[in-house]
Each structure stands twice: as C-alpha cells, then as structure tokens.
Amino acid sequence: MSNFYLTVNILVNNLVSLRIPVMFSISVSSGFCAAVVYLLYDVNPPEGFNLRRDVYIRMASLVKTLRKDGDDWVLVLPPWGRLYHWQSPDIHQVRIPWAEFFSLTSLQANVPVIEYEEFMAESGGPFIDQVLVLQNYAEGWTDGKWEEKVDERPCIEKLMYSKDKQGYYRGWFWGYEETRARNVTCMSAQGHASILAPLLRRNITATSVMLDRAETVLHDHYAGKDYWDTRRSMVFAKHLRIIGDEFRAKYLNSTDSSDNTVYNEDWTRMQAKLGSAKGGPYLGVHLRRKDFIWGHRDDVPSLKGAVKKIRSLMKKHKLDRVFVATDADEEELESLKRLLPELVRFEPSWEDLELLKDGGVAIIDQWICAHARFFIGTSVSTFSFRIHEEREILGFDPKTTYNRLCGDTEKECEQPTHWKIVY
Ligand SMILES: Nc1nc2c(ncn2[C@@H]2O[C@H](COP(=O)(O)OP(=O)(O)O)[C@@H](O)[C@H]2O)c(=O)[nH]1
Ligand SMILES: *[C@@H]1O[C@H](CO)[C@@H](O)[C@H](O)[C@H]1NC(C)=O
Ligand SMILES: *[C@@H]1O[C@H](CO)[C@@H](O)[C@H](O)[C@H]1NC(C)=O
Ligand SMILES: *[C@@H]1O[C@H](CO)[C@@H](O)[C@H](O)[C@H]1NC(C)=O
Ligand SMILES: [Mg+2]
C-alpha cells in the first residue's frame, strides 16, 4: 500500500500556497493525481551563493524532465547556511529558507518547489529515503572520449555520512540535526543533469531522493530557453528589491521611471527589449577580492589598477557617481576609500545586517549594480555573471553589461560573453 497525495493549493494572504497531503490510499486512474516524489539536493560545501544559484537551474531542469512522465516530482529547496563567505560575526546564518532571498511564488511559476520545512511536514518527518552522492569516474574519461553515463560505483572520497545506532545515516542536512537518511550510495555521473532522469525513474523506488554534490552534473542546455525560464523565475525577494530601490533613489538619483527599468514582478510577463533600459546615472562596479587575490591571479587588478579603470569609465560615460559592490576586507576597503573617496557603498547597520543576512546584502549589491548605466565586474566571478543576467532581463544594451576589469599586467583581456535571453 502506498500513500498518494492530493495537491490542493490554498491561497493564504495571496502569498503562501500549501500542499495538503491526503493520507489514504487511492487508486490513480484519472490524471489529476499522481505520486509525489521529492527531489532534494546539496552542493559541495566550499561553493558560494552564486554558483549555488547556478546549480538550482540544473536541478529545476532535471525536475522538469522527470515530470514529463507524469509523476509529481517536487524540488525541495536546500536551506541556506554555513557558507564560507558569510562571515559576519554574531549572526545566525543557518537554516535560512529561500523565501528570505527569493520570491517563492515566482519560483513556483516555473517548477513546483517547496521549502525544506514544508517537505518535513508533508513527507512525514525528517527522513530522506535515498541519498545519492554524485562523483566523477575514478578512471576519468576513458580513451579520452567524452560520453554521458551514470553508474553506481564505490565512493571515491571519504563518505561524509555515517551510520547511527539505529542504522540511519547522519550527516550535514543544512543544520537540521534530526534529519536522517535511510540509504546512502555513491553514483558516478558524467554529463548533463537530465541523464539522471532514467535512473531516478526506474532504479529508485524511494519517494524522497537527495542528490549530494549536485554540481557534478552540468546544465541540460546552458543559456537555452529552459535555462532562461528558470533564471528569470529567480526573482529576488520583494523586501530586498525595495531596499535596493530606496538606496538607488536616495544616493544615486536612480528611479525605474527615469532609468527605463520598470520591473514586472510577474517574470512571465517581463520581456524588456534589448537596449531599452537606460539605467541610473552611476557606474556600477563589482570588485571581487579575498580568495580572488590570494592566488595572485593575473586576471584580477590591484586596487590602484581598478581605480584607474573606474575613473576612466566615469569620464568616458560622463558619470559623476560610482557604486562599488565588493567583498574586500577592512584593510583593502580603507585603501580603496582613500583612492576613490567619492565611492558609494551599501553599508547596512548591524541591525539591518542581522535582518538581511550576508546573502541579502549581496543581493542588494547585485540589484544596485544591475541598475547602473554602465557596469564592470570581475573576471570569472559568478557574482558578476548573475549581475550580467539581471541586466539582460532588465533590457540593457550588452555593451553596458559584459565588461570586466583586467589584471594590471594581463596581455589578452578577454571580455565576458553575451548570453541572449531565449523567451
Ligand atoms: N555583499 C557582497 N558580497 C560579496 C561581493 N562579492 C563577493 N561577495 C561574497 O562572496 C561570495 C562569493 O562567492 P560566489 O557567490 O560563489 O561568487 P564567486 O566566488 O565570485 O564566483 C558571495 O556569495 C558573497 O557572499 C560583493 O560585491 N558584495
Ligand atoms: C538501472 O536499472 C537498469 C535495469 O534494471 C540496469 O541495467 C542499470 O545498470 C541500472 N543503473 C544503475 C546506475 O544502477
Ligand atoms: C541502497 O541503495 C542502493 C542503490 O539504490 C541499493 O542497491 C541498495 O539495495 C539499498 N540498500 C538498502 C539497505 O536499502
Ligand atoms: C536627478 O536626475 C534627474 C533626471 O532623471 C535630473 O533632472 C536631476 O537634475 C538629477 N538630480 C541630481 C541632484 O543630480
Ligand atoms: Mg565562489
């Protein structure tokens, strides 16, 4: 006997939709009801916020593929927390639901998603039937030939889960210590996310499956329509957009009506013409430091080099204001302020930071950069890439978006690629 779930959407304050499990067995003959299967996932711990946003796109694509067969697959959003870069002291930054950063109704208009706590309530407790730890093939690509494949294999790295006295697996489940897995298996996978679909459909009978190290699988079709649908659905939470907009108005003389960046909260109706956005009268800069400079990468400038470029861009584009988003440490920040005293930054009070968290502040920084008349970012930073996409959605001329700072001695400073939205 198995349980089937009837999904009922109830609008609470027009915001929250609840899925109500119906705990009795019914025979499925009509199309309105199918077995619910939950897909959970997690990412390699050292990865930052913006690569995680990228992995979400891959998982959403996999869920769409799985749903094509009729089963009611639902994506469970992995709570945010314990990220390496989120180092603000004395702030509780674990078990953060996605709704603190993104608009859930917007995500749900693309693919069915629920928060982890909702999953626990719906599925009968803090249990995950099957964890699949994704890994590469120990032997690498055989014959140097790339082929897409997936096979159950012995674990290559030390397993980050261990069995408890009751035979359940314990490990890191986003800070939910009561969560346990019933089974953990290592799976070698090579290819795009949807190569996992046949395995998940046929070989696994569990009703909740978690893919750990989900970044192992690639995009089904990078920058294709499905990629962009999911990316466009990742609308930032309203309170963060409002704070960013208020900051733009107050310090940067920037409003949507004067900048031609009017936003439609319903992403399915947002289709700005390329080049239609004007942007606020300021230069937007994403200056990535910390681990990007520790390795002495030659594609990342010195502060002096960056400021020289910033000044020349302000002059060229006749902008007298500059907004800088950066993860620079206190010492570098002091030097930067000496070199560029007019710079504008979003600096939350401790109380605001406690409310917004490091993730919220990063989003506000991205939102403000996304509305600048001209933007320049840092080489191969996913933080900068997400700003490019946001500007593409808003309808900026690509010339004002796909720019990056060059290293002081970099010979060929290749600029970022323009990825056009497919609607
Ligand atoms: N607020 C803020 N945080 C930043 C900025 N740049 C980097 N960070 C932090 O550092 C992390 C960098 O990791 P990630 O998002 O993976 O981007 P990447 O490492 O640059 O590709 C971000 O998630 C932020 O937490 C910035 O300009 N503003
Ligand atoms: C999945 O099941 C099929 C058919 O039983 C089998 O051939 C295949 O090896 C299985 N795949 C994995 C990864 O276990
Ligand atoms: C654990 O999962 C693997 C892969 O699906 C399966 O072969 C194995 O029988 C499962 N073990 C238990 C105890 O259920
Ligand atoms: C702000 O921008 C408007 C145009 O949108 C302009 O007329 C006005 O002079 C600007 N104000 C300041 C203080 O720069
Ligand atoms: Mg990173």
How would you describe the overall organization of this protein?
- One of its GO terms (molecular function) is peptide-O-fucosyltransferase activity.
- Its EC number is 2.4.1.221.
- This is GDP-fucose protein O-fucosyltransferase 2.
- Keywords: Carbohydrate metabolism, Disulfide bond, Endoplasmic reticulum, Fucose metabolism, Glycoprotein, Glycosyltransferase, Golgi apparatus, Membrane, Signal, Transferase, Transmembrane, Transmembrane helix.
- With 423 residues, the chain is of the alpha/beta class.
- It folds into two domains: 37-212, Rossmann fold (3-Layer(aba) Sandwich); 237-405, Rossmann fold.
- Helix content is 30%, strand content 16%.
- The protein contains twelve helices and 16 strands.
- Helix 2 links the parallel strand 4 (72-77) and strand 5 (113-115).
- The longest helix has 21 residues, at 350-370.
- It is globular.
- The protein binds guanosine-5'-diphosphate, 2-acetamido-2-deoxy-beta-D-glucopyranose (3 copies) and magnesium ion.
- One 2-acetamido-2-deoxy-beta-D-glucopyranose binds at residues 150-152, 199, 202-203.
